[in-house]
Amino acid sequence: MNDIIVDNATPDESNNILQQLVAYNNSQVPYNHDTPFMHINRCVKAGDKIIGGIISEIYWNVLHVEILWVKDEYRHQGYATALLTYVESIAKVKGCKICHLDTFDFQAKGLYEKLGYTVFGVLEDCPEGHRRYYLSKRLV
Predict the structure, then answer these.
(1) How far is CA 126 from CA 24, 34, 63, 119, 122, in A?
(2) Number of domains in the chain
């Protein structure tokens, strides 16, 4: 058996790994956009200060919300709902049929469920003593 050496990847090597996976995925299920990932990142400001934002991307017919954040003192005022529904509306126009995201038990699971998301997976002890929830929603 050959000795396998696992080494740190440089930023260029990391990008190469990503590009290789993207090429493989495209060979199996062709992407239906100009780029494999279409980023939809938006923010809400009070003056020049960011009080909330969303980082998301579209791949194939799927919207993935990576981050949705609202500053503490602006929570429960509709900002998260506005950001999420805005991005969902863009995704629908782009042909997305489903959205997925994740949240921890100390974050916004209730909000997502109120907006029509359902839990499809739970990771226990992530972090220890807590749960990470994986949720999805049909956009059509």
Answers:
(1) 30, 36, 24, 16, 9
(2) 1
